[in-house]
Amino acid sequence: MPLKFKVLPLILLLLASCGADDRKQAYYDHGVELLSQGDRIKARLEFKNVLQIDPKYAPAWYQLAEIEAAEQNWSAAFGDYGKALELDPQNVDAHLKRGRLLFGANQLDDASKDVEAVLAIDPQQPSALALRGMIRAKQGDVDAGIADANAALAVDPKLRDGLVLLAEIRRSQKNLDEAKRLLRTAVEAHPEDVSLRIMLASILMDGGESDAARAQLEQAVKQEPDQLAHVARLVAFETQQGHLDRAEETLKAAVAAHPDDDQPRFLMVQWITQQKGLDAAAATLKGFIAKEPDRYSLRFALADLYRKSGKADEAVAVYREIIERDDDGANRLRARGLLAALLLATDRQDEAEALVAQVLDEDSRNTDALVVRAAIALKRKDADRAVADLRNVLQNVPNAVNALRMLAAAHEMRGEVSLAQDALDKAIQAAPKDPQAYLQLAQLRFSHGDAQGATSVLQSFLERTPDNAQVQSALARLQLSQQDWEAMKKTADQLLKSQSDHPLGHYLAGLYAQHAGDLEGSVKHFETALEKRPDAIEPKLALARSQLALGRAEDAERQVQQVLDKQPVNSSALSLLGEIYMATGRLKEARDQFAQMIVLHPESPAAYVRLSDLQARDGDPAASVETLRKGVDATNRNAFLVFRLGQALQQDSRPDEALAVYEEVLKTNPDADAVINNLAMLLANDRKDDPESLAKARELVKRFEGSDQWVLLDTLGWVQFRVGELDQAAATMDKVVSMVDKVPPEVQFHRGMIDAALDRKAEAKDLLAKALASGVDFPGIDEARQMQAQLNR
Predict the structure, then answer these.
(1) Residue 497, burial from CB neighbour count under 10 angstroms (0-12, 13-18, 19+)
(2) Quick one: signal sequence residues (predicted)?
(3) What average pLDDT does the segment 134-159 reach?
């Protein structure tokens, strides 16, 4: 009897185990069946049921990956293929699928690992050979790519990837006949694969076989009539061939074939806008509306067409018609929200605000109205109101890109930089091909001192869309502000290659040539940019700068005056005109010019700096200091102006005030080497008898150890001397001397003082004599004279 009690639990456990295995298999088989029927939603649930029972069941992870890949959820597919391979490293299909994803993401080394894992299992696996060929060809080893493609086709002559790879290589080699033959073979072997027909059509077009190309595009439409992209491609082909009637008939056929789908109608309106103009497109939409007056999507499309074309009054009329027609429906609310947004955009804020209030009285969560109210709040600098409304919007529409960008602006207004970045990251995830969120995030990072982060943001967009001129321009401006000339040259070269007719590439190339000292070359680039866009201001001013540097002051002045004729208060032009006056010795005109700039542009630091320099040049350091003080106050204590004020105070023999000013700059710019350099040198010279000041100077110049700038090393060596580190000071100054062609008098003075302290009297006397004989009034000249007298006793 006891034996029965001991055996019974074991039997129950075995039965339970068998039941779980049966249920797991049943779920899995049903999932596979559903997947074969095209029901991915239910199939996914079945495979998840499998994993509830057995989380380590690799086939279920693989099937989930296949579903994610079919729905183009690439990140999720990649993770699921990885999980399947973690549990079953021998899964050839999972390796190949993941390898293709990695190849598509340009992660070629990782893709190669998956390929080699397959070839280790089966050295003749054709798909793996083809993928390896694709990787090698992309890495530039075309011969190896061809060899792999041929090896794959030797195993499977109809292998899609092998035929496509070889066709692409032959096309790149201008062997169109062979490329066509290979793709025709692929189409015959895989007639259901529409993408092959599209590739074949492209090659046929390259070869001038337009009728054959049209046949392939028409077949693509016939095979997948619900794919509007095929229709758009065929229409674009007919338009390019000049067969506008055929293109329009194709669009009409698509509209007739999809009576319940708005998209073919919208495609037709877009095409008519491009080919026949706004009025014809509006008439087409009105014709659709006349046939289906209650199809409000068409009315909204008409309003949107007017709005985007700058016809705000016509758009307003359409919205008001929707509001009147749909007495109490959702379309009425939507139209009122969009109308409010349009009124706000056209500076009719009071009307917009009143309309928003009406909408929100009826529907407190109306998305369009909340967005408009948030925009009004941002205009009024009421960030709290904006944040509250935008959060309500995002509860209903989490991926609303415009709302996320506005939320970022509101958070930035409140000083919540990390929250602003988070909102923009989400906007980028929601719309990875829209440049605006990238531009906003780059500006946010740059304005808060992260220039490298800003650059990375813009580069990440250009990896997706390399030919976007707006982002390329922003990146170039960023590179220019950071003086990253080599990076800017790459941007210029890319633009000249991808958009040779765009003036930006020539403008950037001109700036690089200007920086490199090739002034004549820069002139040619700037002139080319102006040929392509005669009204462009920046190339014209850049051309003037090169002409001025070449001694062609009259030409430069003429260019600047042309700008000022169109834009009389352009700050860059006004400043450059002042530079021209200075270069040509017209100092009174230069002073008047910069004084005028200060009146017109009190926020511009450059005008204060230039006027201050002229005043110092005239021997009036007090006026120079006063000008910079005014600039500091007018620009909310611009860090560069505060630094220049410190220099002016130092030159006016006001060291205590200069010290306070330098320390102010370092509070907000702790890594500013120029400021640290001046402050350390000031402490070493004017407070050389104060051990606390010298200790502070020594701490400041630690960062200069290992520097490749002789000016910073000179300060390091001088401070080391002041604190008694004589051997270190001598070694540092030896490095300084080795870095300059002609040793400046101040460096000779510093090295001479160090030699004197080390009892190298002959060397010290020689260096101090050279420094004093130079005629240069360097800092510490009186100390040099005293030491020279002492050594000569």
Answers:
(1) exposed
(2) 1-20
(3) 94
Q: Residue 577: which residues within 8 A CB-CB, separation 6 or more?
A: 557, 560, 561, 564, 593
**What sign does the dihedral 271-275-279-280 (CA atoms) show?**
negative
Angle between the N-to-C axes of helices 469-481 and 451-464, in degrees from 0 to 180, rounded to the nearest 10? 160
| Residues 621 and 652 sit within 8 Å (Cβ to Cβ) | yes
Q: Mean pLDDT score of the chain, rounded to an integer?
A: 90
Measured at the CA of 74, the angle between CA 71 and CA 75, to 5 degrees, comes to 130
Structure tokens at 588: 């009174």
Helices (H), 346-382: 349-362, 367-379
d(CA 287, CA 730): 89
- Using CA atoms, how far residue 612 sits from 604, 616, 618, 677, 723, in Å, is 13, 6, 10, 22, 35
Roughly how many angstroms between the first and final C-alpha of the chain, as a whole number? Answer: 122
Which tokens belong to 242? 């000049």
| 435, 480, 766 from 495: Cα distances, Å | 17, 15, 56
Q: How far apart are CA 704 and CA 710, in angstroms?
A: 10
Taking residues 741-765, what's their average pLDDT? 94
Share above pLDDT 90 across residues of the chain, in percent, rounded to a whole number:
68
* Residue 708 burial (C-beta neighbours within 10 Å; 0-12, 13-18, 19+): exposed
Q: How far is Cα 359 from Cα 354, in angstroms, rounded to an integer?
A: 9
Positive/negative CA dihedral, 324, 325, 328, 333: negative
Separation CA 534–CA 467 (nearest Å) = 22
Pair 717, 732: CB distance under 8 Å: yes
| Residue range 561-587, pLDDT digits in tens | 999 988 888 888 999 999 999 999 999
Is the confidence at residue 2, as pLDDT, over 70?
no
What pLDDT, in 10s, does the model give residues 492-538? 888 788 777 778 889 889 999 998 999 999 999 999 999 988 888 88
CB 175 within 8 A of CB 169: no
Mean local confidence (pLDDT), 630-644: 88
- How many other CB atoms are found less than 10 A from the CB of residue 736? 23
Buried b / exposed e across 102-129, counting CB within 10 Å, b at 16+?
bbeeeeeeebbebbebbbeeeeebbbbb
Residue 763, helix vs strand vs coil: helix
At 687, the amino acid letter reads R
- Report yes or no: 373 and 399 within 8 Å, Cβ to Cβ: no
Confidence class of residue 371 from pLDDT cuts 50, 70 and 90? very high
| CA distance linking residue 119 with residue 125, whole number of Å | 6
pLDDT of residue 134: 94
Q: How many CB atoms lie within 10 A of CB 149?
A: 30
Judged by DSSP in three states, 235 sits in helix
Q: Rounded to whole angstroms, how far apart are CA atoms 355 and 343?
A: 9
CA 543 to chain centre: 28
Q: What is the DSSP string of 51-84?
A: HHH-TT-HHHHHHHHHHHHHTT-HHHHHHHHHHH
Residues 6+ apart with CB under 8 A from 87: 56, 57, 58, 61
Q: How far apart are CA 216 and CA 214, in angstroms?
A: 5
> Angle formed by the axes of helices 367-379 and 401-413, to 10°?
30
Give the C-alpha separation, 574 to 563, whole Å.
9
The CB density around residue 553, as the number of other CB atoms within 10 Å, is: 18
Helix/strand/coil (H/E/C) assignment for every residue in 96-136: HHHHHHHHHCCCHHHHHHHHHHHHHHCCCCHHHHHHHHHHH
Q: Decide if 299 contacts 323 (C-beta within 8 A).
A: no
What gap in Å lies between CA 182 and CA 426, rounded to an integer? 44
Statement: residue 13 has pLDDT above 70: no
Give the pTM: 0.55
